[in-house]
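Escalation from tier 1.

The customer reports that the assembly of two entities below gives different structure tokens on two consecutive runs. Tier 1 could not reproduce it. I'm attaching the input and our single run for tier 2 to review.
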Amino acid sequence: MRVFALTGGIGGAKLALGLAKVLAPDEVAFVVNTGDDFEHLGFHVSPDVDTLVYTLAGEANIETGWGRQDESWQFMRAAEQFGLPTWFRLGDRDLALHIYRRQRLAEGATLTEVTRETCRRLGVAQPVLPMSNDPVRTRVLTPDGSLAFQHYFVRDRCRPTVTGFEFDGIEDASINPELSALLGAGASSDRPGAIVICPSNPFVSVDPILAVPGMRDMLRSAGAPIIAVSPIVGGQAIKGPTAKMMRELDIPASATAVARHYRDLITGFVLDECDASREAEVADLGLATAVTRTVMSSLDDRIALARDVLAFAGA
Amino acid sequence: MRVFALTGGIGGAKLALGLAKVLAPDEVAFVVNTGDDFEHLGFHVSPDVDTLVYTLAGEANIETGWGRQDESWQFMRAAEQFGLPTWFRLGDRDLALHIYRRQRLAEGATLTEVTRETCRRLGVAQPVLPMSNDPVRTRVLTPDGSLAFQHYFVRDRCRPTVTGFEFDGIEDASINPELSALLGAGASSDRPGAIVICPSNPFVSVDPILAVPGMRDMLRSAGAPIIAVSPIVGGQAIKGPTAKMMRELDIPASATAVARHYRDLITGFVLDECDASREAEVADLGLATAVTRTVMSSLDDRIALARDVLAFAGA
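Tier 1 run:
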């Protein structure tokens, strides 16, 4: 029984690491958002895939919250001299992955194949599956027009007001065939033990995954509990613009609103203990609920939450 | 009156720096071998152009003899982990130039345009003109088949025995139009003051330049003295495989043999003082001769040789 975890950036990767610590590599698979991928300096940058791979490899940069640990910035300083854009920072060590990926994509490899190879090179045994091998590019709609996601997120530091999102290319994107083989109808693996939506941004990390044509049906048809963990704790996002986006979209920045966002897909919802008072609201949506500590500061926190989520899914 | 200096790698760049120190930027232009350019890790690597540009910019790495100063190797160490080839080393700082060049070439810029831009970015005011914007690739012929130049030179450390050379693509290569504009018939500049063949490897640094269709005629027609400086001193090359190649090609490793190699093009030849005894041999080839110190250890040596060559050309 394999657990499938849908994940985006840092928050998702924390729970993913917990799952990776408590499950055997063949008992879990990660489905990763690629809506914030983009082309930069001729490289295919896949921030959520890389955050997860580096996290699972023990190579994530804790100081920055992105990129690779023990990083140096000699390239970036020299790049400034050449007038190259510097708003998105690629470290000297991180460049190895990007140069490798570009080489392999140019040779015709899929993003999934390249990701598997980078996982092997970095010692990651779990399947890390981009949601699709086809390009999907999240655009953030604002009153002044739309922005490519990384322009919104990194260059403009989430300052613009959000009015909505578009996922360019989504209509033509196919579900990662390796994911279909593991999870879809006639999948080679057993019925999944659970599908977990990690505490990632619902709008820009999870929704692109769910918007790949056929994804929702495939998840629903799997016959497993589908559990979302709230990325909103006490009305705030632990990290990132989730709460700000909700306010701008006229959605209350609450765990309940996140549960409502996912309600037609999920069967259960995990709230943080500080949101225990909202459990009844969520249950009223027809969802099973669990309340636990969801804030993951330490590795032990990640492992504890993974165990709690798996226990909840098994219940 | 502009001086045109034909140059390849390190030895040529030394004299080029001397010329750059004694002439105003509009009194000199450098014509650079691109026969040892190659594609590596998806980058266009142009070793002779870069050696010259970094040298003129005061950015050359003295310790390695190639690449950029104050270099670090974080990328290379991470690249090993991804199984990327590591026989050709690109430093973290040097990557900025390569990523910039790839971007600009992908946008349709010529190698000459990119080189002008990198010069401007690094504060190099002199024209640095690749011999051609078209791809020319030197192959080294050996008893076991032919090798791409960088495989011979860097990967195999010049160990294979040389039986000859081929310049792939040379038939279809056009002279750099900016060079023709400065030097060719109807050139916008005055008649050149001199054409100087720097002390570079005759076979793999200078011959590719001279083999571009029309190059020899253009140089001869310029009506200027054409002066070669011997890269062979006392039967040895200061650096690189010139002497080894000559022995393998059954050519005596002597300054005289270099003069003979160029005799149908040049009008004068500069020998090192330790080869003074060969001056008569060279004069017997019908060439004007000058004997001076050609070994360039210090910046003063570079400047002194530049002055000597210019004085000889003016005589």
